[in-house]
Structures are given as C-alpha cells and as structure tokens.
Amino acid sequence: MTAVGRAPRLAIAGRTAAPRGSELAGALAVAALAELLLVRVGSRTAIHIPALPALRKPYALMTEAGDVVLVLAQSLAIVTLAAAAAEGWLRGDWRGRAVMALTGAFAVAATAIRFGWGPPGLWQWATLATVASLAAASAGGRRTPALACFTAAWLLIGGHTAIQSLGVAPGEAGRWMLWLGEAAALAIPLAAAVAVRPRGRRRWFAAGAAGVAATAAMAGPSGWTLRFLTLWNLGLAGTFPPFAYGIAVATGAASFAAAPRSVWVPVALLAASGLGLHNTYQSALAVAALATLLLAQGRRGAAQ
Amino acid sequence: MKGLFAAVLQSRAWRFWLGAAAVLTIAALLQWTDTEPAETQNLTLFAYEADRDPGLDPGNSVWERAQPVQVPLSGQAATYAAGGGSVPVVSVRAVHHKGTLYLRLEWDDPTADTSSYRPEDFADAAAVEFPAQAATTVPSFCMGQPGAGVNIWHWRADSEQVLALPTEHYSNAVVDWYPSTEDLFFTARAAGNPYALNASPVQNLVAQAFGTLTPAAEQSVQGHGVYANGKWQVVFARPFSTSDPELAAFGPGTKTDVAFAVWDGSKGERDGMKSVSQFITLSISGAPLAGGGPEDWPWTVAAIALFLGLSAIGLALGWYGYREARMGR
Questions:
Q1: Closest approach of chain A CAs to the CA of B177, in angstroms?
Q2: CB of B214 within 8 Å of any CB in chain A?
Q3: In chain A, what are the domain boundaries?
Q4: What is the pLDDT of residue A50?
Q5: How far apart are CA B202 and CA B289, in angstroms?
Q6: Gap between the Cα atoms of B237 and B172, Å rounded
Q7: A75 vs B30: CB contact, 8 Å cut-off?
Q8: How far, in whole angstroms, is CA A27 from its chain's centroid?
Q9: Chain A residues whose beta carbon lies within 8 Å of the beta carbon of residue B140
Q10: B315, A48: Cβ pair inside 8 Å?
C-alpha cells in the first residue's frame, strides 16, 4: 500500500522478490538441514554401527555438534517466525495480515503445548489448521496442485495423530489415512514438476540417475533403514514399492533444480520439517516455510 | 512506532545485526537455563488415576473408561534377525491406581499361539519399552544406546501356560522318571534365569543397544494376557517407585516416552522379527479417570471449532489469492 503524497517505489527488473526476513529463513534452512543430518539421521543411525567403539570420538563430536545446531535452529525458528509476523504487520496487505495472524496462532499453540495449557489435542488441531491455512493462502497459479498435495498429506498424516486426541479410534480408516497421506506426499514432486516444467536433457539425466539410485537403495538391504529414516523424518512409513520413491526423488530433484531460487529456502524448510505432527520445532519449520513463501509471493505481486 | 520499526527493518545491516543478536541471545538463554523450547506433538497416551484397582484382568470395566490410543507398527528392520510387520496396529490404554501403573495392549491376531514347545513353534508376545531413568537423552527406540538405556517389559503367551508333557506333542516319546527337584539339577533356575523361575509372565529387561538385552535385577512387573474373539488383550502392571536407575520411573504429573512391540508366533516371528512402534508420549496425570462417556466434550468442541475456523480462514485466503491471480492475468 502506498501512502498518499509519497512516491511509489519503482520495481527494479530482475531484483529478488524475497521478503525482508528471507536471510533469517535461509539461515534457518541451513541450520535445520544440518540438524536433520547430524541429529535425526547421523546420531540416530550411527549408534548401531558395529564399529562404533572405534569411532567413539567422531561420534561424540557429531552429537556435540548436533546439540549445538539444534539449539541454534530452534532459536532461529523463534526469530524467523517473529520476523515474518513483524513483516506481515508492516506490510498491511491481506497476505501480510494472514502471515501475522497465522504465525501468531501457531506461537500461541506451541507455547500452550510447551507449558501444558489445555489438552494437547486442541493445539494439535490448531497446528494442523495453521499449516493448512498458510498453504491455502500460498496457493495460486501453477503451484496450486503441489501445495494441495502437501496440504492433503499434512492433514491426513497429522490428522491420524490429532483425531485420536478427540477419543476417536480411527481403526481401518486410520490405515487409509496414512496410506493416502503417503500417496499425497509422493504426488508433491510430480505436481511440482508439472508446475515448473524442468527442461534440459542433462538435468533429467541427473534426476533420473538420482531416482534409480533411490529405487536401488529402497529395494536393497539398506531399504529398511531408509524406511525408518523416512518415517522418523518425513512421517512416511515407506509402504509403496521402491520405484514410487525413485520417481518421487527423480521428479523432485529435477523440479527443485528448475524452480526459482526464491522457493529453494521454503522447500528446504519443508523437507526438514517433514509431514504431520512430530514436535513444535518441526511444525515451526513448516510454518516458517509457508510464511516465507506467502510473503515472497506478495512482494513479487507488489513489485509487478 | 510502526514507522520506526519499518525504517529499522528497511536497512539490511540493521536487520542482520538485530537478527544475529536475537538468535544468539535466545540460544544463550536456552543453553544457560537448560530449557528445551520444543515439545512433542506426537501421539499422547494419558494414564489417569482409577478409583478402583483394575488388577491384571484385561476385561475389567475400568479399561472401558480409559481412552485408547491406536499406535501404528511396522516391521523391525534395523538389525538381524529382521522381519515382522504382520500386526499393523496396537491399541493401548493406561491407568494408574495407588502408585501402580497399568497398561493394556490389544491387537488383532487370528491364531492364539501359546506354545513354543516344538522347535518350529513360536509364541505370541508383546513388549513395552521406556527410557531408563538414568538416560541422559531420549534413547534410540531400537533397544536404546550407550548412555541412554531402555527398560523393556516382555510378555510371552507361552509363559502363562502349564508346561506340556512331551507326549502331548510327540506320541512316541518316552520320558524317564526324574527324582530330583532341587535347583542344583535345574540349572537355569539355579542360575536365576527369570524365565525358568516363572515368577511372572512378564520379564523386566534392560538394554543399551542391540545385543545387550539382559534381565533387570528387579523383577517387579506383573502381567496377564487373554485371547478372545481374534484379539489378544494383555495387561502390564508395575509400581511407580524403583531404586534401579536402569529401570523406568513413573509418577503422577510426569511424562515419559513409551514404545510397543508385538510378535505373531504363527508367522514365525521371534527375537528381532516383530512389529514395532516409535516412541509416543505417556502422560501420567494426577487427575481421576472420568466415569465414561465424552466428559471432555467442551475441549473436543473447541478443537473442532478452532480447526474449522482457521481452515475457513485459510480457504478464504486461498480463494482470494486465486481470484487475485486470475484478475491479474
């Protein structure tokens, strides 16, 4: 919005449309991916290496580094969400107000869960709705199918947890929720590929190689370990045939490389957050990703 | 104020220094106060205080008033012997009464496998895993890790059965009369093997990684399983207090992690071949167990209203953005 009597800011061709807090979001993405590698993947799997007694020192170093990175990532998540809310408040347009209100709602939910105010189920539903609302608000144009798949996966996988807090035993429907949630999650990279339309033989060749490697890894002896890791970190149980994950990896890699750089940070944050309800830190990563996406979209719209 | 704030945020240098200062201050505060800002949002199993003792009977009416949690299971595949995964889900309820924690596990199983007498037979079984109270961090749910051990309660269907005579399984078998009944001639019993002592159908075990599973010094866990209508229902019970740091600690107003495992003997499942869950949260409340029915309906209504309200806002925002994008085209 432009104040009366003040010259409107001129859009500069080629200038990045990233929101003002994007540096913080970028730092959060780096810290969250480092935490994912060191804590949720590295230290959780390394403890089962038979030769660990001989590797005790590197393992201790890795867990120490993981602890530091986790504290840093959590601090960055708090500041990034505050910065996103502040920017939304300053912007004053509908996207800004949506970011301010929804990050505020998430902050209330996360604080309430932390201090045990009210039943956890209430705040689980609030978290689900906050993420779904931010994703819906970020939709528009060709990104809509990918965001719709993401929202469906989040609601189905997270809903399986939250529905039980209402005293409902999901039974057979619960198994379908998890299965459909995983199907929606695997559809995200396909929808993203349709949106960004990756071109170039070399790009597709590299993505295809990544897909073949992923299929082989899921089908091979390490497949069960990978399924554990996808369950821990992405909320996916790995119930589909290995080639489904290979296709998802291939299309995901090709789409990521072809996507505008302004969405790299949100995508990295969503990868680190996983799908569904794990803990308030991982939910904060999803909220920060979607808030960054929504604010970037608004700035690009304003610049245009 | 808004103008000043906007002016400060307009400057990239100010944004950098303010952001860095805020992050480092929060990180330092978290470290110095040893505060964990994040909280789990995973499944939570609540154990409320029952007004009467549910005992070891899985059919006790107290259990009908406890809210179940459906925990997804998957095949154990982190180490050999790997396998399992035939039981997709276990339903768990928890209560406590006069300082004793009770858990009831229930799962579908078309066959009751209660004997492991023949080499080719394996019994149905279930286990519950908690972090040891001495654990400095949340242990790996795969049997714990060095420095963060786990306490496991393991129930086997065959341990509740009277040992069959060999002739029941092998009609041509002949067994010599054996006069001695002293422990000296029953070596497992003499060595203190809790399974041979058969004091309880539940073994209390501790571990700090794969291959380190061993009986705990204190065998204080009781249990009982009943098979009916294609379902197993197994109750585990243990007093809250324990002096052994390798065992789990409980108390009203405390939370801990808990994971579950189930074996289907007819599918050849034993040892590491089992269906396992991740850790979920066990919250032991000092509040009394409700009398049955949806006493929490105000919270349920509030949760649904909050979800629907926020979702409606999200849908409206999505529709608004969609229209804006179409008009801008």
A1: 47
A2: no
A3: 22-303
A4: 62
A5: 26
A6: 41
A7: yes
A8: 15
A9: 44, 47-48
A10: no
Q: Say yes or no to pLDDT of A168 above 80.
A: no
Q: Most confidently modeled of A156-170, A250-264, A273-287?
A: A273-287
CA-based nearest residue to A177, from A163, A190, A191: A163
**B14–chain A nearest CA distance, Å:** 11
Tokens for A64, please give them: 């120490």
| B16 contacts in chain A (CB < 8 Å) | 23
ipTM higher than threshold 0.90:
no
What pLDDT is stored for residue A10 in this prediction? 38
Lowest mean pLDDT among A56-60, A109-113, A188-192, B247-251: A56-60
Nearest to A105 among B89, B310, B317 (CB): B310
Q: What CA–CA distance (Å, rounded) separates B155 from B223? A: 7
**How confident is the model at residue A4, as a pLDDT?**
42
> Which CATH number is B44-161+190-288 given?
2.60.40.1190
Give the start-to-end residue ranges of the domains of chain B: 44-161+190-288, 297-321
Residue among A122, A177, A233 with most chain B CBs within 10 A, to mutate: A122
| Structure token digits, residue B297 | 């309906």
Mention every residue, 6+ apart, whose C-beta is less than 8 A from residue B232: B105, B106, B107, B109, B112, B124, B126, B157, B225, B226
Q: How far is A263 from chain B (nearest CA, A)?
A: 18
